[in-house]
Structures are given as C-alpha cells and as structure tokens.
Amino acid sequence: MAEGSRRARSREAVGIAADPAGGPGGKMAAARRASSTMLSSVSLQMLLCLSGAYDALYFLATLLLIIYKSQVFTYPYPHLVLDLSLLLLTGILEVARLYLGTKGNLTEAEVPLAISLVLTAGGALLSAHFLLWQTLVLRADSILGATRLALHGLQAALQLVAIAAFVS
Fold first, then answer.
1. What pLDDT, on a 0 to 100 scale, did the predictor assign at position 153?
2. CA angle, corner 132, sides to 159 and 143, nearest 5?
3. CB contact at 8 A, 84 and 65
4. What's the pTM value of the predicted model, to 2 decimals?
5. If exposure means fewest CB atoms within 10 Å of the residue's CB, which of 19, 130, 133, 155 is most exposed?
6. Confidence class for position 71, pLDDT limits 50, 70, 90
7. Three-class secondary structure assignment of the chain
8. Do the Cβ atoms of 135 and 75 come closer than 8 Å?
C-alpha cells in the first residue's frame, strides 16, 4: 500500500494525475486498448521489405547486364540511353512505391497505400519493358523480370486486401 501511494505522489509531483484504476492511463486507456485492432498487414510488410532488397539487386544486376550487352553486342546508342533512363526511372519509382507502401501499411492509411498501388502498376509496366521490349533480352533479364513481376503481382493483391481492411 505504501508503494502505491508513493508512486501516486511521485506521479502527481511531475504533473500526472493520480489514476484510480491503478495502472498507467486508467480506465479510458484500457477501453481504448481493448477496442483498437491492428489492421496493418504483416505479410504485406514482409513482402515490401523483401521487394526492397530484391529491387536493389534487380537495379544492380540490370545495370551490369546493360553494360555487358553494350560491350559484347552491337547496342544502338539511342536504345542504350533509353534503357539506362528507364532503369533510373525504375529505381526512383521503386523507392517512392516502397516508402508509400510501408507508410500506408504501418499507419493504416488508405491514400499512401493506394498511391503505392498505382506506382506498383507503373513498376510492373517498366518490368514488362525490361522483360519483353528491351533491345536485347538475355535469359538473366527474363529471370530477373519474371521474378519482379511475380513480386509486383503479390504486392498488388495484398495492397488491395489491406486497403479494403482499412476502409471497412
């Protein structure tokens, strides 16, 4: 009993009101904790982290493949500039997409997650370019691009589920 009253006096000394329920926050905080549910998706968050690591690998591998193709094969200069520009655009787009997806998922906000979903579609389109419409497509490009498209598809599905959970 003396310990509890000593704690109450020390809390009042620093400007925190005494709590009749005995715990930090009182009855209101206990009611908020009981009624709040976590809607953010753990699987989406794990996939976003995996995608971040894979995108760094993809960017580096694709850059090295473009350099290899420009040295070994006849690679027209305008196509080289186009492919390097699109790769740079892909890197910028992926950073923004992953940031907004993570922010939207962790804060349970629909708008950043919806923007990330739109950017996922744009990233999938750029992946399709590097998979199908690039000047020279090697087997390594096909493997990297197909894996990336599969990740984008999974992320889009999980983002739709998360947005539906946040809205309802």
1. 97
2. 70
3. no
4. 0.76
5. 133
6. very high
7. CHHHHHHHHHHHHCCCCCCCCCCCCHHHHHHHHHHCCCCCCHHHHHHHHHHHHHHHHHHHHHHHHHHHHHHHCCCCHHHHHHHHHHHHHHHHHHHHHHHHHHHHHHCCCHHHHHHHHHHHHHHHHHHHHHHHHCCCCCHHHHHHHHHHHHHHHHHHHHHHHHHHHHHC
8. yes
